[in-house]
Design goal:
Distance between the termini: 36 Å
Structural class: alpha/beta
Length: about 425
């Protein structure tokens, strides 16, 4: 995949991505088509990446569950699972191409295997390895609007794969990188906000967010973009703009002046905020091993077992136990991984050497994020003072150069978000 030339003020090529809500029914598909038509008539060479209709992937997954697992002695059916669940995007890409043709525009759908979007063979969670852009680019150069199903690819031995939930964002960024152009993500919100407006009514839309900030926001609870899509955009330096799909061209077929939020290099942001946003995630569970042996390799034993089972661990806290020669080890993981992690630990209790395991999923992670943290002191003090003033106790902390996260009781999560949003002055951004 080639890198887009970001030194040019504008390129004639553009990748547009529409999510499941934007593809929810035929009328919404028609609205997306009108937005695409406006860009095409303004002289852009357009490729469009689409998700399945809202709720369709869940329905398809339920059908595969109903079909059941492979019989004993046969390989797992993850490859056939991908064949089924990838069909949702095939439907919307065809419907959108039909709609665009009905409007008099030259459009064609391209399946992932026709481009091809080449992935590894990790069915259900595949990662993109390459997207040759020559064939798609040649079609666009001839005036064709290319409609591409997101979320899907093909292995080097021609088996269909899917990229995991939210994978259409990654598909769109990968296609943009291959074509050397920007990527506009149309969704049901009009940009990236300082926090969730449903929690804090004074949340403000951000004009620009750095790749690093967006990556932290996506991984810490913001649902606007999928984490892997931001990673890819940052690696390939693809400019990404988040826009609302609920807009209409005017009577002359022109779109409103572009607003939304631009995801870009930190250097392109003139005035860097100390904190850009506050995020919250309820998809957390806290696991504590009480009375863990105080031998030096005990934590390594714990986390090696978890890593081998693909259980992601975030926060880690170790404290002295009441029992002499023992410690208490606490770590957090996603709720869906908590039961598996607990089973692993319980099954290896004797080998690891601990007295008791406790699991608590009534917790939430609240984070503050901003590139300005690198050069400003007092960010942590502001956070902990704001939480203390509201009587919110924290159970664990994790930090990076540009974020601080705390684990708290879930009941206090929204209170904490509002308190931190105010403490950092984000309602005045």
């Amino acid at each position: 995949m080639t890198r887009p030339d970001t030194t040019r003020p504008e390129t004639t090529r553009l990748v547009m991505k529409f999510g499941g809500t934007s593809m929810g029914d035929l009328e919404r598909i028609r609205r997306a088509a009108r937005i695409i038509a406006a860009e095409a008539r303004a002289g852009k060479q357009v490729a469009v990446v689409v998700s399945a209709m809202a709720g369709k992937t869940n329905e398809l997954v339920a059908w595969t569950d109903g079909a059941g697992a492979a019989a004993s002695g046969l390989p797992m059916s993850d490859d056939e699972y991908d064949v089924v669940v990838a069909s949702g995007e095939q439907v919307t890409s065809g419907l959108l191409a039909l709609t665009l043709r009905n409007m008099g525009l030259n459009a064609r759908s391209w399946m992932g295997w026709q481009i091809p979007i080449i992935t590894d063979d990790a069915h259900g969670r595949a990662r993109i390895e390459d997207v040759p852009g020559e064939v798609l680019g040649a079609a666009m150069d001839k005036g064709e609007i290319a409609v591409v199903p997101g979320f899907q690819g093909v292995t080097r031995d021609n088996r269909i794969t899917t990229l995991g939930r939210g994978g259409s964002d990654t598909s769109a960024v990968a296609v943009a990188a291959a074509l050397g152009c920007p990527c506009d993500i149309y969704t049901d919100v009009d940009g990236v906000y300082t926090t969730d407006p449903r929690i804090e009514s004074r949340a403000r839309r951000l004009e620009k967010v750095s790749y690093e900030e967006m990556l932290e926001m996506a991984s810490l609870g913001a649902k606007v973009l999928q984490t892997r899509s931001v990673e890819l955009a940052m690696a390939k330096r693809v400019p990404v703009r988040v826009l609302s799909s609920f807009v209409e061209p005017d009577a002359d077929g022109n779109l409103p002046a572009a607003a939304g939020t631009l995801i870009c290099d930190e250097d392109e942001i003139v005035e860097k905020r100390i904190v850009s946003g506050v995020t919250m995630s309820r998809d957390e569970a806290r696991i504590t091993l009480l009375g863990l042996s105080d031998r030096t390799d005990a934590p390594a034993d714990v986390f090696t077992r978890l890593a081998e089972a693909n259980v992601n661990v975030d926060m880690i806290v170790q404290s002295q136990a009441r029992t002499e020669g023992a410690v208490n080890l606490t770590f957090t993981t996603g709720r869906r991984d908590a039961a598996r992690a607990a089973e692993l630990m319980t099954a290896a209790k004797a080998e690891i050497g601990f007295e008791e395991i406790r699991v608590d999923d009534d917790v939430a992670k609240v984070s503050v994020i901003g590139v300005g943290m690198r050069s400003h002191a007092g960010v942590a003090q502001t956070m902990f003072r704001a939480l203390a003033d509201k009587g919110v106790k924290f159970q664990a902390i994790s930090t990076s150069e540009i974020k601080i996260s705390v684990l708290i009781d879930a009941a206090y999560a929204e209170l904490a978000v509002r308190a931190l949003h105010s403490a950092y002055g984000l309602d005045a951004v």
